[in-house]
Amino acid sequence: MRATVLRKPRDAHADAVAVKASAAQTARAAVLRDLDGVVHILTCGSVDDGKSTLMGRLLWDAADLPEDTRANLVAQAGPGGQPDVSLLVDGLVAEREQGITIDIAWRYFDAQQRRYVIIDSPGHEQYTRNMASGASHADVAIMLVDARHGVKRQTRRHAAILDLVGIRRVILAVNKMDLVDWSEDRFRAIEADFKAVTARFGFIEAQALPVAAKSGDNVARRSVEMDWYGGPTLLDVLARVPSRGRAAGGAFRMPVQTVVRGETDFRGLAGTVTSGRVAVGTVVVDSASGRRATVKRIVTMDGDLDAAVSGQAIVLQLDHDIDVSRGAVLAGEENLPTMAHSLDARLVWLSNVAFDADHGVLLRTATDLVPLASITMRSRLNLETMAESTGTICEPNDIVLADLVPARPVALDRFVDNRDTGSFVLVDALTGDTLAGGVVSGLVGQALAAEAGQFVLTDAVLARGVCAGVAVGSPEFRRRADEVALILKAAGVVARLDGGGR
User: Which entry of 129, 166, 314, 334 is 20 to 30 Å from 261 by CA?
Assistant: First the structure.
């Protein structure tokens, strides 16, 4: 006996909704395929300047938010029915409770044929390290100031950090214009202060615009309250920012992450090309030893390539094996990085503890970790006058110029030439805590290539570490120095003892 299946009558309205949703999905997919690049946006400024509200307003007015998200915010709206759009960005419970941004928040949205990645950073001085971390990923920065208070000390600090990490486009959003009666005079005064601050740095573009994030004036739509302002909205400015893309130009660099071995005789060097281009037949050089080989294959998860450019993760198989391991930097023979035995650097001090010359410090690059023989603080930036003041003191959140001497030569470039091999962090040798982030502004190269792989153990390095509290030149000092050299030798590192303690 055949069973009878009862079917619910077709709902014409439901069918129409389904067809409309399907068409919208198809259209959205087509838009995403045609997006004109990706732009990473950092927001920064002082506490309560309205960063989260501004980005939330941008999402609310310009992004294709899910209907349930909009309905949820409308349902939570307070008196007046105005939704709290900052909740679209502030994700941590502590942030919502305190009304401040603590951690870096990442949000994505598509508008005007582009994809935007919002990096919402904290404004409180205590979380400067979080802001600096977010800035290292950004293409453009939106700095906020409260129209009632104008440019502050933290605003100047953030401008200096943006310059330090290489951001070249900055937008000043003068927020809360509604609280100063939409005053043009107030905006022009803040704009002049902003230009005075940014003139000191190497920004390609630095533009100020008046906004009211809470109401959305000049965020994604033009304000009727500020008819004296004839410039673009914030969204219009963002639409003109060049999309993120790593150019194939520049010298070839590839820090080696690991050595890959196959079941047969395959041996490859794995890493990500940080700049330039490499092709089959290219001669590559190990920066430390000067050993050369020709690229035989370029292997990826998707098959072999004839060439690879900046940003691609690859495995290089060479025509003959060279003694290269993790931490090495491969380069083109026509333009090698410097095997630096000293460097000039700009630092932002991220530790909560002031700099102490007696503590051991490690310099961490893209793939290398090197003890520092010495750190000399030359000057620090005065955030009131924006001038450099001579001194050796370095306190939390300071921005300083310093001379660094690694215990052995390390492959580096100037930051202006290569961001990846020209930047580093300083790490506490005992705790592993991050002390500072820095960029290379000048290099002094190693004189003798034969010594490029040597690790130099000076009295100063030993006295700050395993020989702390032991008299330099004493038998115990020499015994400990010899023991460290033997351990390093067993690990494959040639160490040279250099100093009166030996």
Answer: 334
pLDDT at residue 452 in the model? 43
Instruction: Please give, one letter per residue, the 3-state secondary structure of 176-218.
Output: CHHHHCCCHHHHHHHHHHHHHHHCCCCCCEEEEEECECCCCEC
Concatenated DSSP letters of 223-286: -SS-TT--S--HHHHHHTSPPB---S-S--EEEEEEEEE-SSS-EEEEEE--BSEEETT-EEEE
**CATH architecture for segment(s) 253-332:** Beta Barrel (2.40)
Q: Where are the domains of the chain?
A: 18-239, 253-332, 338-447, 454-502
Strands 495-498 and 105-111: unpaired
Specify the CATH number for 338-447; select among 3.30.1330.10, 2.40.30.10, 3.30.230.70, 1.10.10.10. Answer: 2.40.30.10
Q: What is the pTM of this model?
A: 0.69
Residue 255 to residue 320: CA distance in whole angstroms: 19
Task: Please state the rounded mean pLDDT for residues 460-487.
Answer: 82
Binned at pLDDT 50, 70 and 90, residue 97 comes out as very low
